[in-house]
Specification:
Elements lengths: L8 H7 L2 H8 L3 H27 L8 H29 L1 H5 L2 H22 L16 H23 L4
């Protein structure tokens, strides 16, 4: 352990579990989990970016509904990698990460990205058959795409900045 854990009791407990100790002490465990986390994020954010650029008007011959159906499967599957690997990494440095404003910003941006996607699918996406192919996306769809790109860029930036702040 690099530092003595300081913070809320449940975080100190979490950081002292055998799992957290293993994450910190086994030479290859943390790097392997981190690689899984990054690979999952690549698929998740890659799917989001491909969908967002379509909403912004690129490749209009591709049906938005078909892209959503295809890419959402990959995005959902990647969450199955990102969440458990992220939780494992969190256990290793729970008190440190919980105190980090960069980590908290990353979580807030992930929540914002999720809410944006939910609002898109419960809102403008319901009328997708009217603008599915060879038609410009409605302004609400473009706004959701821009927000998505901003949120995910922020999430990636925060993930990288965690190593420095």
């Amino acid at each position: 352990m690099i530092h003595e854990p300081v913070g809320p009791a449940w975080l100190v407990w979490l950081e002292r579990t055998a799992l957290a100790e293993a994450m910190r002490q086994w030479l290859w465990l943390y790097p392997i989990v981190e690689i899984v986390h990054i690979a999952g994020f690549v698929v998740l954010v890659g799917a989001a970016v491909m969908f967002d650029v379509r909403l912004l008007g690129l490749s209009r011959r591709l049906a938005v509904a078909d892209m959503a159906r295809h890419l959402l499967r990959w995005a959902r599957a990647s969450v199955a990698l990102v969440v458990p690997s992220g939780l494992l990494m969190f256990t290793a440095h729970a008190t440190e990460l919980a105190a980090s404003p960069v980590f908290r910003l990353k979580l807030a941006l992930i929540a914002a990205a999720g809410l944006n996607a939910a609002a898109f699918h419960r809102g403008v996406f319901r009328s997708v058959e009217a603008w599915n192919r060879d038609v410009e996306s409605p302004a609400a769809a473009k706004a959701a795409a821009v927000l998505s790109l901003l949120f995910w860029t922020g999430v990636i930036s925060c993930g990288r900045l965690l190593a420095y702040f």
